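Quick one, probably user error.
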């Protein structure tokens, strides 16, 4: 039996990874800022982090925040993993972190580099955006009478459970370096995703596409965050909406 520590183990992805690893017969430790007995703020590190890693064979690093601090957290985790003799560090990243000049993406890329240079056995998997995140963004936009979208924007959302399956399988294997990306089954216009969301939630909103400016928008418009050659996901956005809202069959594609 392998002892595996999952950081961010109570989050959207982490909790599913934990479930799959436990189902596989592993001893799994869940690390988060508030989940005992391994309640640790990775930005601070310290003896609590060392205790969480003691005797662990593998670490699956899912913890992340868009409020800053991912690089510091990763550095603390890597240093503690070295002290504990961890043999395999698995990190989940995002497709396009090396192509889209977004601050959060740059931080994820920096963490990838820290992992690769850690001296530990390592595996990095990049995935496209989860259905949950796309729905969260659309829910925010739909609070107004008019849904304003960035013109010519596309996305390739993937089912989080499928990414969890892949990440758990990688954690059970040997260090493999940078793995092929995982993308959702369809590259969709953001407008088509928005209309599918509105249909599924029964909201009537006008949808307006507005061109934006800047390097980040140009990178998204160019598809820097997409992985059409790795459309290995099976679950569609409409299927996700149907499971969450009990509808979604009328969602338009495009």
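Nope, works fine. Designed sequence:
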């Amino acid at each position: 039996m392998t002892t595996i520590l999952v950081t961010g183990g109570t989050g959207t992805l982490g909790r599913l990874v934990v479930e799959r690893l436990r189902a596989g017969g592993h001893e799994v430790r869940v690390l988060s800022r508030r989940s005992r007995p391994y309640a640790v703020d990775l930005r601070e590190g310290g003896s609590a982090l060392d205790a969480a890693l003691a005797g662990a064979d593998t670490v699956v690093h899912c913890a992340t925040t868009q409020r800053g601090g991912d690089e510091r957290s990763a550095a603390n985790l890597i240093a503690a993993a070295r002290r504990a003799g961890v043999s395999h560090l698995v990190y989940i990243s995002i497709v396009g972190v090396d192509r889209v000049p977004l601050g959060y993406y740059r931080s994820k890329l920096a963490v990838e580099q820290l992992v690769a240079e850690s001296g530990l056995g390592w595996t990095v998997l990049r995935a496209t955006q989860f259905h949950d995140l796309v729905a969260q963004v659309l829910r925010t936009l739909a609070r107004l009478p008019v849904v304003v979208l960035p013109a010519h924007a596309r996305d390739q959302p993937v089912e989080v459970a499928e990414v969890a399956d892949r990440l758990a399988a990688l954690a059970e294997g040997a260090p493999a370096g940078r793995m092929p990306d995982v993308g959702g089954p369809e590259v969709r216009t953001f407008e088509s995703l928005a209309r599918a969301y509105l249909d599924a939630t029964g909201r009537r909103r006008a949808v307006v596409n507005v061109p934006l400016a800047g390097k980040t928008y140009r990178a998204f418009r160019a598809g820097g965050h997409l992985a059409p050659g790795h459309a290995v996901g099976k679950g569609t956005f409409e299927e996700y909406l149907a499971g969450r809202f009990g509808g979604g069959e009328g969602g338009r594609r495009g």
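The longest strand covers residues 88-94.
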